[in-house]
Amino acid sequence: MKRLTQLFVLVAFMLSCGGQWYLLQGIAWTSMIREYSQVVPFTQAVQMTFSGQYPCSLCKAIAEKKQSEDSKILSLGKYEKKAFSPALAVTQPFRSISSMTYIIHNEFFQTRSEAPPTPPPRFA
Predict the structure, then answer these.
(1) Residue 39: predicted pLDDT
(2) How far is it, in rounded angstroms, from Cα 94 to Cα 73?
(3) Please, which residues have CB within 8 angstroms of residue 54's CB and are 6 or more apart in sequence?
(4) DSSP symbol at 39
(5) Which residue from 54, 57, 68, 98 has the least number of CB within 10 angstroms?
(6) How far is the C-alpha of 56 from the C-alpha of 31, rounded, in Å?
(7) How far apart are alpha carbons 29 and 56 in whole angstroms?
(8) What angle do the packed helices 19-37 and 2-16 form, to 10 degrees?
(9) Which pLDDT value is given to residue 30?
(10) Where are the chain's structural domains?
């Protein structure tokens, strides 16, 4: 059960950091190498795959989605950040702890007036 929880947390962390794009890119590269190696030698297929000159449709879709996701993140920085004015914090003087009033006579915190039973009861 502990390993399942750790695996779930790891997958959630990877997905939150954009790991799905790297997984899909790996799948795209694997399929590209497989397709290109049917036409040309394996070493040339690997070279064609990682050169970037012959992207497949999945590679193009991944690049487009990653760019749109990055533009969403960058557009969040354009909004005006609202914060409190430092002047408001200065105008409110701090009260000292000795000047605060405490409620002493609360019914909930009063001590009990009856004495405990003697001898203490035994539960069997």
Answers:
(1) 92
(2) 40
(3) 32, 36, 48
(4) T
(5) 98
(6) 9
(7) 9
(8) 80
(9) 93
(10) 19-66
Judge whether 31 and 56 are in contact, CB under 8 Å.
yes
Question: Which of 55, 23, 21 is closest to 36 using CA atoms?
Answer: 55
DSSP secondary structure of 47-92: HHHHHSSS--HHHHHHHHHHHHHHHHHHHHTTSPPP---HHHHHHS
CA dist 43 and 37 (Å) reads 8
Q: Is the dihedral of CA 97, 103, 104, 106 positive or negative?
A: negative
Q: Which stretches of the chain drop beneath a pLDDT of 50?
A: none
Q: Do the beta carbons of residue 49 and residue 38 sit within 8 Å?
A: no
Q: Please report the pLDDT score of residue 85 as a whole number.
A: 59
Handedness of CA 24, 25, 28, 34 (dihedral sign): negative
Cα 8 to Cα 5, 32, 44, 75, 99, distances in angstroms:
5, 30, 39, 31, 52
- The reported pLDDT for the residue numbered 122 is 77
Cβ contact 27:58 at 8 Å:
yes
Quick one: DSSP state of residue 104? -
